[in-house]
Amino acid sequence: MSSVKGCLNFEHAERILVLLGEQAVRAYVINLDRAQARLAAFDAQARGIGLCYERIRAVEACSIAEAPEGMLPTAVACFHSHRLAWRKIAESGDAWGAVFEDDVLLSASLAGLLAEPRWIPRDASVIKLETVNTPTKMGRRGRKIAGCLGLHDLLNYHSGAGGYLIRADAAKLFLALSETIERPVDDVLFDLAVAKERGLRVLQMVPAVCVQDRVLAEIDGRAIVHETQMQTVSAPLARGCLTLRQKLGREALRLPRQLGNVVRNLRRGIVFPVRIRVPFER
Fold first, then answer.
1. How many other C-beta atoms can be found within 10 angstroms of the C-beta atom of residue 18?
2. Which end of the chain is more exposed for a tag (fewer CB within 10 A), N or C?
3. CATH code at 98?
4. How far apart are CA 214 and CA 53, in angstroms?
5. Domain contains 50
């Protein structure tokens, strides 16, 4: 096992790799060069729970020449930063990768989950690890994975991209879908209409094992230590117009799949969903 010394020296290191042990799922943290305090705070947490990670050099908003209507350059830069992480995962040869923004607070159980990923369902595509403390609809019947932690099918939009697991083939798909950026990254990752259309299964960790500082500050009634890079603006995905014949053909192909979905949903407890504010595991 090797280690990298002086990993917080930004003058000499564009890429930071911290090795604290072996783990089966690589973790990537998105961080701006100028945000040394944020990385130091994340690094202290990671060392405290035994999590190793690789730093993704975040894209600066000042490098964005033009932003789509309704989006700030910060949101576009944030999306490009997540795309860098997706590309790393897609090209790594690994089955999964974990992506974090540098202002998240981590649960102590996170490192253990990444070290032993056999709990991940084979048909999962994206697993949301964080909460933004808003009412969220999910499958009532969850899958217990460790201690009090469980996985539930996510059934409506749950914002935020502060922490999630993504399968390598899903990372490739999202790279293709986001060659032209029109919406914030969390709007795309957790657009369940797109997930259903593409056959992706999106799950929610309950309780969440990470949370952005601004969210926990609101819950605890304290001041925010680190502002998030994320700016969210919802907008519909552009879709081409179909002819009547194309629409009828599409529906005919969907029917067997929809019947199969009914059976799978019964097994997963999705027929009678539950709406909760996902708590954070402290």
1. 18
2. N
3. 3.90.550
4. 22
5. yes
